[in-house]
Amino acid sequence: MNSLMTLGEPIGKLLKQRRETLAVCESSMAGLLSAALVSVPGASAYFLGSTVVYTLESRRQFLAITDETMKSTRSATEEYALLCAHSIHTSLGGTWALAETGATGPASNPYKDPPGTAWIAVTGPIERTLKISTGHNRREENMWQFAEAALGLLEECLREQCLLEEGAIERATTGKK
């Protein structure tokens, strides 16, 4: 059985410890990431908000991404995942943003991306993307796998930032370059 709290707890703990915040933009996961993140007690300390961008109109209204911008971009791509992450980051502020776009199934999306394909983007002190290909068309299972991968990528970025900061503090206190 999948558990929202099990999925969200590691991120919630890290963000609360670091006093950092997060904004989320989802598409094919339809709020699963946000549900996992707010299932953790004390989520209001780190969760700024989210949006589900499932249609052209929601993209226009919630992310202020214009049709002109989209002329050279399409959804369900790395570029679009980064655009969504930057847009929600700009809208809500905070330390980090996490965005997802993809095709959960059971059929391909309108762009013919196979079901089980998604792009995840993290923006903030570290910027990173990840492509996921599950190889199957089981919609709900893909949603959970996308969520695990997205939160795993965010956790990786948070831990890397911790190490970078620890190294900077050590260099500052020891005088080493």
As a percent range, the share of strand residues is 15-25%
Q: How many domains, in number, for the residues?
A: 1
The multimeric state of the shown protein is single chain
| CATH homologous superfamily heading | CinA-like
Structural class comes to alpha/beta
Unreliable spans are: none
Helical fraction: 40-55%
Sketch the major β-sheet: 5 strands, mixed
Q: Determine the N-to-C terminus distance.
A: 49 Å
The tally of strands reads 5
Give the integer mean of the pLDDT values: 94
- The geometry reads as globular
Provide the CATH topology.
Answer: Maf protein
Strand order of the largest sheet: 2-1-3-4-5
CATH class call = Alpha Beta
Structural overview:
There is one protein chain. This protein has six helices and five strands. The chain has 177 residues and is an alpha/beta fold. It has a single domain (4-174), classed as CinA-like (Maf protein, Alpha-Beta Complex). It has a five-stranded mixed sheet, sandwiched between helices.
